[in-house]
Design goal:
Elements (H helix, E strand, L loop, with lengths): L18 H7 L2 H7 L2 H23 L30 H37 L1 H15 L3 H12 L3 H27 L3 H8 L4 H9 L4 H24 L11 H7 L9 H28 L1 H6 L1
Helix pairs in contact: 2-12, 3-4, 3-12, 4-5, 4-7, 4-10, 4-12, 5-7, 6-7, 7-10, 8-9, 10-11, 10-12, 11-12
Amino acid sequence: MQMGSPPNMPAAVLSFEDQPVRQVRKFQWLRVFARNKGAVLGAILLVFWAIVAILGPAIAPHDPLAMISRPRRPPSAEFWLGTDLLGRDLLSRILVGAQISLQLGVISVVMGGVPGVLIGLIAGYVGGRVDTLLSRFIDALLALPSILLALVIIAALGPSIRNVMIAVGIATMPLYARLVRSSVLSIKELPYVEAARVVGNPTWRIMFFHVLVNAYAPVLVLSTLQVGNAILIGSGLSFLGLGAQPPTPEWGLMSAEGREVLNRAWWISTFPGFAILSVVVACNLVGDGLRSALDPRMRMER
């Protein structure tokens, strides 16, 4: 006799008997996502910037490091976004800089997400003293704001784009650990996990193939939001001179270079700033759309 799902079970948590239903409804979240105009707009923006990041060096009209004109030349037919303080083409630098800034966001999320998910999974599933020890470690990291923790790490490692990725990754790791731990604590008590233990599955298999796979939805949403947050923190560190170093065409550094002449050459800081803003807003729109699509309660309301 098959057992039904317990009442109020989250959609991301399914028993073995629910697998046929899962196959039928696996694309339901995508339809809900597609009906969210803001999420679709955010996805289009992210795809656009991803293409720019891939093709940037090939489609840039000029060498982003070459001084090809007079400094602080305003936008014109020849230089669509103008030139910077050294006479370099701003459009070319933004196109090439997209690769650096997006890599910073994605790599930072991976560096923070992978260990954070593992820590949260182990703490939530094993429990006991292991949970207490790991939770205190995460609480210590959470005691410092992300930007302040990143500043401390950069001060220890030195300013560079690689160290910014490490710093932002470590700063975001506690968020994943806390989120996954809370999800695992509820999922591991469900009947289908107990059934997996009874039939003799090893602990590691239960943790990864029965518990973690059913906690993917909040992790996916958080990762999308954290890409934008990582780009914002990384750009802020570069703005302060602690991230990418000249002449690297990184958006935060480019914004910082024009702050002294903002009233006379507004385009030097404005256009890189708009690039940062568009990516961060797009990540937030996609993250909100995924949260609405993957959360069964919000999906039912739609």
